[in-house]
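Reading a protein record of the kind used here takes little practice once its layout is understood. Each number in the token line that follows is a code from a learned vocabulary of backbone shapes. One such record is shown here in full, so that the layout can be seen directly:
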Amino acid sequence: MSTSPTEKLLLDICEHTAVITINNPPANTWDAESLIGLRQIVSELNVNRDIYALVITGSGDKFFSAGADLKMFASGDKAVAQDIGLKFGQAFEALADFRGVSIAAVNGFAMGGGLECAMACDIRIVERQAKLALPEAKVGLLPCAGGTQRLTALVGPGWAKRMILCGERIDAETAQRIGLAEEVVDSGEAKSAAMNLAASVAAQSPVAVSFCKELIHEARDAVMPKGLILERERFIQLFDTADQKEGVNAFLEKRQPEWKNA
């Protein structure tokens, strides 16, 4: 029986589907505990042959996940950044490589690491009121958990640049139009839609589905690992800059940053 090692992630099993609920109010942010927990849960699900699909959603009705808890980076400690960046990468890469089909039920804001979590899933079902963004550059950081790589693969370089370089926040309809969301549903319906889709997975051979997913990922795996490594390296290098410290602390202090370009 698979269990969650942390109260920040709730785990329920419904027939052949595992449901993970991000449960770290008020904004369902990620920290070291929840990232380690996600990696452990996925590892256990991979060896549970009764699980064919995984649904991940957020607790409450406002946030899927607002991403990283920026308080972790307020000190500008490079060792902390390296450790957390690695944990983000390990957790979301484990999610991306889940043996079965993973579905993100995006029930609210998916920002930064929250959107990176959703992009690590095979399919994204997004509620109509949700907003999606990778706003890390606004606080002197960059997406370090696959954001630059997976967003580009999903929507192409143009929209990836709009969202990452220009800080553009998009709505659910735009996400579907550009290929970031496979389905848009009304408020409160993402989880049930994801569960229905997960049930259809169970109607197929789990072995065949696993092999098909491996083959679909073949082209991605030829180029993405190098990009993911470079992404984390660049993230850590930001902690040698004045802008990183200014950006994070300006956000926490609720003021506009004064960029030094250094």
